């Protein structure tokens, strides 16, 4: 089946979650985090491979907004993820609603992601749920959406498997719209990651929306305005500079991200959150620092300061490390004016362009 064709019988979508004192309609304006804030994220359960894939996708948001995510085991984490129960449900609290949830309870849940789930499905679901965690509403509940729903068909579909919603859940998740007076919004965006797939069988005039699996340009621009001040980030490690767990480097074109993950792995991802290169140390160490040493060696140390991976380029004082636009990671000689093969001391050979 083509990715562009909706499988009408298997559409899985997330459900809205609101606190008991539901203040529907005040989502973006009253439930935003502070721009520049680092949100701590903790997994409560789940397979380590699933956890790693979720974290990799979530970081995509930080390329466009002034919010960072720090994955770890902080008991006071603002976002707490459950992904160990395959119950077919996916949901997240909206923005700062997470602060009203008991610290031992999840604020986000993934109920169908598994280690062998396709990367495109991780992208579709994780970007969507982290959008909710940032304060986003469902796009089909946009004040100006105007979707021509066939309500009887919608009830029949969503009240059956795989969603099995009540009529009230269908009303809340699909038909209810947010007020213009209390939300910040852009134009209705049919490409938004926050929009459910809508098969033509559920509308009265053939209107449909396919599988939105990536952030749309409007998602990026609008949320960048909601959380202004996003930094382009570092692209290089100069001599003596390092990364700490959770920190990253990004290529100048913003398409490739290298991150020292909290599981101990250093991984290079492309814009689709597909890994291109890794130190293959995930789960094997407690990460300390990833450093471009002054002797020219690029080294990953654990918390006991023991080297666990190295580029073996020592003896080249002043060398620097670069994440390139083409996806290649390179250690260059000191003072290299031209970043050419002749000046390269080590390369990952991970270029994908």
Give a summary of the structure in a few sentences.
With 353 residues, the protein is α+β, with helices and mostly antiparallel strands.
Structural features:
353 residues; alpha+beta; Collagenase (Catalytic Domain); Agglutinin, subunit A; 6-stranded mixed β-sheet; 6 helices; 18 strands; 20% strand; elongated
Residues in helices, as a percent range: 10-25%
Would you list the SSEs in sequence order as H and E?
Answer: EHEHEEEEHHHHEEEEEEEEEEEE
**Sequence of strands across the biggest β-sheet:** 1-5-6-4-2-3
- DSSP strand (E) fraction? 15-25%
Broad shape: elongated
The CATH class name of the largest domain reads Alpha Beta
Oligomer: single chain
Average predicted confidence as pLDDT: 83
**Low-confidence parts lasting 5 or more residues at pLDDT below 50?**
1-8, 18-27, 180-184
As for the number of domains, it is 2
The assigned CATH architecture of the largest domain is 3-Layer(aba) Sandwich
Secondary structural class: alpha+beta
CATH superfamily of the largest domain: Collagenase (Catalytic Domain)
User: What count of helical segments does DSSP give?
Assistant: 6
Description of the structure:
- It is a single chain.
- The longest helix is centred in the middle third of the chain and has 15 residues, at 119-133.
- The chain is built from 6 helices and 18 strands.
- The chain is α+β, with helices and mostly antiparallel strands and 353 residues long.
- The protein has a 6-stranded mixed beta sheet.
- It is 16% helix and 20% strand.
- It has helices at 27-30, 48-58, 119-133, 151-158, 167-175, 217-226; strands spanning 15-17, 38-43, 68-72, 79-82, 90-93, 108-110, 236-237, 242-243, 248-250, 257-260, 266-269, 275-278, 287-292, 298-302, 307-310, 320-323, 329-332, 344-347.
- The protein has 2 domains: 8-226, Collagenase (Catalytic Domain) (3-Layer(aba) Sandwich), CATH 3.40.390; 236-347, Bulb-type lectin domain (Agglutinin, subunit A), CATH 2.90.10.
- The radius of gyration is 22 Å and the shape is elongated.
């Amino acid at each position: 089946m083509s990715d562009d064709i909706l499988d009408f019988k298997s559409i899985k979508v997330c459900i809205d979650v609101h606190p008991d004192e539901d203040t529907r309609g005040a989502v973006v304006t009253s439930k935003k985090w502070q721009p520049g804030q680092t949100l701590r994220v903790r997994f409560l359960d789940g397979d380590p491979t699933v956890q790693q894939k979720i974290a990799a996708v979530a970081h995509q948001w930080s390329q466009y907004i002034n919010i960072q995510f720090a994955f770890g085991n902080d008991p006071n984490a603002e976002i707490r993820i459950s992904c160990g129960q395959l119950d077919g449900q996916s949901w997240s609290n909206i923005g700062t609603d997470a602060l009203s949830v008991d610290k031992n309870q999840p604020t986000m849940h993934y109920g169908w992601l598994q280690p062998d789930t396709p990367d495109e499905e991780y992208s579709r679901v994780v970007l969507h749920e982290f959008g909710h965690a940032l304060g986003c509403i469902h796009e089909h509940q946009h004040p100006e959406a105007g979707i021509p729903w066939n309500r009887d068909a919608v009830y029949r579909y969503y009240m059956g498997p795989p969603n099995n919603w009540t009529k009230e859940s269908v009303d809340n998740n699909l038909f209810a719209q947010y007020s213009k007076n209390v939300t910040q919004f852009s134009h209705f965006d049919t490409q938004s990651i926050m929009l459910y797939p809508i098969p033509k069988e559920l509308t009265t005039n053939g209107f449909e929306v396919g599988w939105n699996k990536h952030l749309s340009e409007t998602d990026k621009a609008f949320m960048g305005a909601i959380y202004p001040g996003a930094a382009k980030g570092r692209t290089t490690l100069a001599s003596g500079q390092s990364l700490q767990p959770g920190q990253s480097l990004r290529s100048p074109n913003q398409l490739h991200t290298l991150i020292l993950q909290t599981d101990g792995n250093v991984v290079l991802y492309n814009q689709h959150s597909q890994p291109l290169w890794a130190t293959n140390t995930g789960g094997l160490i407690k990460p300390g620092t990833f450093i471009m040493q002054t002797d020219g060696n690029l080294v990953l140390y654990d918390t006991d300061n023991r080297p666990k991976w190295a580029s073996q380029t020592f003896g080249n004082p002043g060398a620097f490390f670069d994440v390139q636009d083409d996806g290649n990671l390179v250690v260059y000689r000191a003072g290299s004016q031209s970043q050419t093969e002749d000046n390269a001391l080590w390369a990952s050979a991970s270029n994908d362009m």
